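We were asked to recover a plausible sequence for a given structure. The inputs and outputs are reproduced exactly as logged, with field labels preserved.

PROBLEM: sequence recovery
POSITIONS: 151
GIVEN STRUCTURE:
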């Protein structure tokens, strides 16, 4: 246990968050996502896990340490529902609320078509699979910067 750091963030996830640079993207996925096979294509090359919690809880832990990239329009993205791209499932609404709280403003959660999402995930720094069992609990988050302290 570390003071001030969510116990959900295990050593592997903490290492990835620390190693990522500005513009690097991570993927948070549900239990149905082909996480292991997609993770083999990422920079880390292996699957990371935050088990026994849903997507919103995992994203909240991640964003407690990682800022989103304010220089791009798609720093936070969600997998579209097949056949209903404008539908927002409850899991995605919950993650949207977490993102908005973490960033202190309404933040766009950009839709990405399912197969395009798979390809996007392969180019990520890492894939983190959660215990989320609801469908479409899949998101990409791009790391931003932390400004220097004012002098």
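RECOVERED SEQUENCE:
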């Amino acid at each position: 246990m570390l003071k001030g750091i969510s116990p959900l963030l295990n050593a592997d996830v903490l290492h990835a968050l620390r190693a990522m640079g500005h513009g690097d993207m991570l993927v948070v996925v549900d239990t149905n996502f082909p996480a292991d096979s997609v993770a083999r294509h990422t920079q880390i090359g292996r699957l990371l896990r935050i088990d026994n919690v849903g997507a919103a809880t995992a994203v909240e832990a991640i964003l407690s340490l990682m800022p989103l990239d304010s220089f791009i329009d798609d720093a936070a993205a969600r997998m579209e529902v097949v056949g209903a791209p404008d539908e927002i499932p409850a899991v995605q609404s919950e993650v949207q609320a977490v993102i908005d709280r973490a960033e202190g403003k309404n933040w766009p959660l950009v839709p990405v078509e399912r197969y395009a999402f798979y390809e996007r995930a392969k180019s990520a720094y890492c894939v983190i699979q959660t215990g989320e069992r609801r469908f479409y609990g899949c998101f990409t988050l791009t790391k931003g910067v932390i400004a220097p302290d004012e002098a």
